[in-house]
Write a structure and sequence with these properties.
46% of the residues lie in helices and 16% in strands. The protein has eleven helices and ten strands. The strands form two sheets. It has a seven-stranded mixed beta sheet with strand order 1-2-3-4-5-7-10, with helices on both faces. A three-stranded mixed beta sheet has the order 6-8-9. Helix 3 packs antiparallel against helix 10 and helix 5 packs across helix 6. The mean pLDDT is 96. The structure holds coenzyme A. The site of coenzyme A (COA) has 14 residues, from helix 2 and strand 6.
Amino acid sequence: MSETQNDILVHTEAGVTTITFNRVDKKNSLTRAMYAALADTFEAAAQGTEVRVVVLQGDLAIFSAGNDIGDFLQQPPASQDSPVFRFLRAIATFPKPVVAAVCGPAVGIGTTMLLHCDLVYAGDNAAFSMPFVNLGLCPEAASSLLVPQMLGYHRAAEALLLGEPFLAEAALEVGLVNRVVPPTECNAVAQAQAKKLAAKPLSALVETKRLLKKGQTATVLERMAEEGESFGRMLREPAAREAFTAFMEKRRPDFSNC
Ligand code: COA
């Protein structure tokens, strides 16, 4: 089965659904329509036994530049039912394994979605960043909870307060990625691992993932909802509007009045 949903390509073969971000001219930034397609794909893949594993991948030079800034400026998510939040809940509660192949920049949600993947393989050109503060925003995807858990508080503060990028080797050291490989091998490594997972008994995979996450899912969803409230409000405030307008106008933001 093969289908194209806007700028998201979805291909299912031998139990593995591969989702490819396919909006390279805009650095795979994610629009409302793309979030809706992602949410629909995860929700459908959670059902039944045809899909056993999901793989997320981008381009060899860019994983994702995060939220589409023009989209956020024009139609910021109005409620928890907005496509972006629906996608985040779908990936955070997805019962089967998710494998990611990350090459090039992974900005904002491009990094935070990885916190909800089970295996992450990175090209040595990968660069991870969560520049929410620089955009007048706060963390999303429960990253305010999961990043300090993974990196420790001080490194999390550097990543989330300063929004400084970190490279593949640093991501490997803190455990955000499993292995760093040449970019040209990254998708193949992710596919090989997905294929191994797809050959295992699905019921055992699902039960093991449930137990690995036990005690955490409710807290993650609660944090995600709280972040979502703040994120939605802050998107409409002067700092974010200045940051987004400056990006669209290709100039430095001026936060002197924010
Ligand atoms: N939303 C909308 N458009 C975006 C985008 C985004 N998040 N990121 C990149 N683009 C667009 C640019 O506007 C540009 O469009 P144009 O060709 O019509 O002018 C095109 O993609 C190429 O981007 P450019 O910045 O020239 O590429 P680059 O290789 O120099 O830099 C990035 C790549 C990812 C480092 C840079 O684009 C970037 O920092 N993007 C914004 C990331 C961000 O802040 N995301 C939001 C997180 S919440």
